[in-house]
Amino acid sequence: MSGVPAPGALSGAAARFDGMSDATSDQQSQSPEKPVEQWATGDEPATGPQLSYLSTLAREAGEQVPDDLTKAQASELIDRLQQRSPRVD
Questions:
Q1: pLDDT band at residue 79, thresholds of 50, 70 and 90?
Q2: What is the pLDDT of residue 25?
Q3: Which of 30, 50, 57, 81 could crosslink 46 through cysteines, CB 3.0-4.6 Å?
């Protein structure tokens, strides 16, 4: 035994790896988004990045960002303002 793998030995490992990547590909093809009503943390306060982005979008749209938004509300407002923004295609 020289420590060199037998011919074809690596291809079996590669085939197992390929099979594993197919499962990952299947999972990635499904949309990871849940409706905001189903978010476990949707009722928590909006995050800093959400508020910053909302501020930019709202300024461009001539709107005000309400105080005390939840994560879910901020996400919905971002979606609505993005549709009106020239920044987002």
A1: very high
A2: 47
A3: 50
Q: pLDDT for 23-64, tens place per residue?
A: 444 444 565 678 878 888 889 999 999 999 999 999 988 999
CB atoms within 10 A of CB 73: 18
CB 61 within 8 A of CB 21: no
Query: Bridge partners of 49?
Result: none
Structure tokens at 57: 């979008």
Q: And the tokens for 43?
A: 């009722």
Q: Residue 10 has which token pair?
A: 């690596």
pTM of the predicted model over 0.70: no
Which segments of 1-89 does DSSP mark as H helices, in order?
Answer: 9-29, 48-61, 71-84
Is residue 15 within 8 Å of residue 38, measured between CB atoms?
no
Report in angstroms the alpha-carbon separations of 64 from 58, 83, 86: 6, 16, 18
